[in-house]
Design a protein that fits this description.
single chain; about 140 residues; mainly alpha; two-stranded antiparallel sheet; about 75% helix; globular
């Protein structure tokens, strides 16, 4: 019994350290209600989590654009555009965090440029395009 207790006393600090490390690596999320939808935004600075979430929303926006019906009435067209804008705005939340972490990541720059262009922020899009061109050199 004494040997078991001695082993536990040696192992427990290792488990405590591992548990603290896991707590530190878990993403933290902010849940917000925006226009009746629940928005989830990570507040950690893990590039991959933010990038993957941002690209998922970006792809959703592109998919919605591809599904848009040119023959739809004005009211339906406005609803479709609003859905696309929401998807790109969600993407922007995550990809801006990626940009803060690594402002030289080409795929992030390309996605942000496309989002800004789609949101009619042409100057920001042009700035990012120039940055992408500078990275090629």
């Amino acid at each position: 019994m004494k040997k078991i207790l001695a082993c536990l006393l040696l192992v427990l600090p290792v488990f405590a350290i591992a548990q603290e490390k896991n707590k530190a690596e878990k993403p933290q999320f902010i849940y917000e209600e925006v226009d009746g939808d629940i928005e989830i935004r990570t507040v950690d600075k893990v590039f991959a989590r933010n990038y993957n979430a941002g690209i998922a929303h970006y792809n959703k926006g592109v998919e919605l654009i591809q599904q848009m019906n040119a023959d739809a009435g004005t009211e339906q067209h406005i609803k479709q555009q609003d859905e696309v804008i929401k998807a790109f705005e969600r993407s922007l939340l995550f990809l801006q965090q990626c940009y803060e972490i690594d402002d030289q990541h080409k795929n992030t720059l390309v996605a942000l440029s496309g989002i800004y262009f789609a949101l009619n922020e042409v100057e920001k899009s042009k700035e990012l395009q120039a940055k992408i061109e500078a990275l090629k050199e």
